[in-house]
Design goal:
With 236 residues, this protein is an alpha/beta fold. The chain has one domain: Alpha-Beta Barrel (TIM Barrel). Helices cover 31% and strands 22% of the residues. The protein has six helices and nine strands, in the order βαβαββαββαββαβα. Strands 7-6-5-4-3-2-1-8-9 form a nine-stranded mixed sheet, with helices on both faces. Helix 2 links the parallel strand 2 and strand 3. Helix 1 crosses helix 2. The termini are far apart.
């Protein structure tokens, strides 16, 4: 049996629109067996989602505590975390801290327009072959324009041979599963084994016109809420 996982999702604890509880409910409807909440530089939303999923096992969703960590070289995803990792380190230092927690380090959207890199530093994408990452996000279906950057990531990975990860990078529950990782089994433990053994595959859904309209509409709300401080971004 193969199952779907979406390993890059945001809640309103960073720049997403939805609560952790709503994310879990929507993941159940979309038949995602495993999800990872990876809010920017915080894990509280992921912890709440995990607690909710564990309290409602009939939903059939297992939640991984993750974090999208801002490094000077760009963003790094930490999966299976126990504690928050502070931003501002190098990519290599951040990956070391993830591994110290026995977590997995994933390089997300290495060739997208915005990768979170600090000016004057080399991007994590260019350092990819030197970084001890556990997987590469070759599908980050965060917008309809992501196909070009995803193609570059997939071509790069043809020689790098990292575990291929597919994610939605959803900031709106509607887009959960627009990118996903297919793996053998059903549980987060099964998924972890598949990542470590390089036996999972990355997939995506095509964008519809209604998806585009919703993305443009909610994207404005998203930015306003996050950058004007009306969301929960202060809660780490």
């Amino acid at each position: 049996m193969k199952s779907k996982a979406d390993l890059h999702i945001h809640t309103y604890f960073s720049d997403g629109l939805d609560s952790p509880e709503q994310i879990v409910k929507t993941a159940s409807i979309k038949e995602l067996a495993v999800i990872a909440i990876c809010d920017h530089n915080r894990i509280k939303g992921a912890q709440k989602a995990q607690e909710f999923a564990q309290a409602h096992p009939y939903l059939g969703v297992e939640v991984i505590v993750g974090e999208e960590i801002t490094t000077v070289n760009g963003h790094i995803l930490g999966l299976f975390l126990k504690e928050r990792i502070k931003p501002g380190l190098t990519a290599e230092e951040t990956i070391e801290k993830i591994h110290q927690q026995k977590g997995l380090a994933i390089l997300p959207h290495p060739f997208h327009f915005y990768i979170g890199k600090k000016r004057g530093h080399v991007s994590a994408g260019k350092l990819m072959d030197r970084l001890p990452i556990d997987g590469l996000e070759v599908i980050c279906n965060s917008s309809a324009a992501s196909w070009w950057a995803n193609m570059k990531a997939a071509l790069k990975n043809a020689s790098s041979m990292h575990t291929a990860i597919g994610s939605s990078d959803a900031h709106d529950a509607h887009f959960l599963g627009h990118g996903y990782t297919l793996f053998a089994g059903r549980t987060a433990a099964d998924l972890r084994l598949a990542i470590e053994m390089k036996k999972c595959t990355a997939h995506y859904h095509f964008w519809s016109l209604s998806d585009l309209y919703r993305y443009l509409h909610t994207g404005i709300q998203n930015l306003a809420k996050y950058y004007l401080g009306s969301g929960k971004r202060a809660e780490l």
